[in-house]
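Final report, closing paragraph on structural work. Over the funding period we assembled a curated collection of sequence-structure pairs, and we close with a single example.
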Amino acid sequence: MQTLHPTKVHFSRYGGITLLLLLLACLWLVLRQPMMPAQLQQLAIVAWCDGQQVQAMPTDFQEVGCQQQSDVTADPQGRLLWLQLPFELPSAQPHDPTVEPTTPQALFINARASSAVYLNGQLIGRNGRPGLAADEVPGAMDSRFYLPSSLLRPGQNQLVVQMSAQHGWLTLAQPIHFIGIGPYRDANAYLQQHSELGLVLLGILLTGLLYFSVLALRSQQSATSVFANSAIMPRRWQNTLLALLCFFAAGQLWLEMVRGLVGYPYPMHDLRLLAILCCSCGFGGCLLLLTALRYQRAQWHYWLVATVLLTLPVLLWLDSFDARIAVATFLPVCIAAVLAALRWRTPEDVDYPVANGAGSSALLLLLYVLLAVLLTGIFQEILAFVLMTLLLCALFIEQAVQHQHQQQLQLADQQLILQLQQQLQQHGATEPKANLTLTSAGKVQLLPIDEIAYCQAARDYTEILLLDGRQQLYSGTLRALEEQLPARFIRVHRSYLVNVRHVRQFRTTTDTDSGSGAVLLLVGGQQVPVSRRLIPAVRSAMQEVVAA
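Its predicted structure, as stored:
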């Protein structure tokens, strides 16, 4: 019967350092986030009229076909509307209309629509040409209109905007993003406040994309090896998924930034939103798949299907694209954190090397989720991408640590193969030692070596399984026990030592729970897994035993 021990927490040293740096960087970014520019005065829509019923510019918005904004929200999608936006002349503006203001003022409209602007009854500009479906000319997504000082009045001013959106493919919950007045400058300047930092993040993500793409192409594993049964995720697929994570993150960041860098007609906004949603889904899906293949290899497809079935209904239920984009990343990250945490809490005698680093990965993902929840009100786009980039950097470090660990395991396997070959050469020689001495609680026990079926490592001690099913404990490591046993005991796995005289059959397996590609069937009915990289050497050893 196995002795239970308290589960210990295993962290990657580098993962812990990265976790601390990520936390400090996020706190610094929160404190350093600037407020939105105060120069812009947002205007509120008071009333609106249907352009089909009111063809001329209305004066009092009390005609038939007019509605109060408080009763029914104005929506120009598939319609032609007249919008009423009264405003007070800013206090910094001279009340004498003959005096030229020191700072020219402009009206900024961020809406998925064409528009024409009337200031106190006078047309001051058009963005495209608003109209019915056959007459409309699409305008830019973001536009500005100079407000002539000669038309501005002291006190109350009347602003009327004719607006239509006849060329969209999607129905948005909020097609009018912002209408306001501020100092005359580039309309995109108010949209992208952190373009320099965004370009730096984009450079980091593109560098990661190039690096992991080259590593994936240079890897030698076959493309189908990800579905193979192995306790360690193939290097090629790790690099491929990391490259895809960089690709989707960089694509989403560029699509978010392109609105502030390059103007585009408003119908293109629908395609941009769909592309951002696809990138968000791709990032979340790849992150989940990477985590599942690292820490839950046997059930990765179940977790992937469950995540898709959970995320799709939520995306269809939400009517806001901003919420959909956030959920498409947030839900997979939450599930990935759960997967890593489950691997972290796995009993330490089960696939111990695979669980190394799962604790730091779980905390990194949980930290991302926690910050995303706590900073919902101030979670600006650039801050979200800073956190995303830092999360990827942490995953890169974890991948490098695991890659180094895999190389160490491969070197250890090569040494095991050499030892196995030496044991084969010594097989059949005289073995004078017939008993194994076990010491426990002051007692000395002599255990016949021929009764030992196999030995299994259990951290600081070793379990000895006998042919009759009994179990004994050896107070030492498997390597120390191997030095005391004769050559007929061969290492078939990092955690198993087998008496070849009691092997009945060597059999390959596709059982995903075994974590191996082959097993040895013993005469007592026990099954011992064989390390995938040791299969050729063990098969050769079995053939030598049969020949002898």
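The CA atoms of residues 59 and 121 lie 8 Å apart. Confidence is low (pLDDT under 50) at residues 1-12, 93-100, 221-231, 347-353. We thank the funder for supporting this effort.
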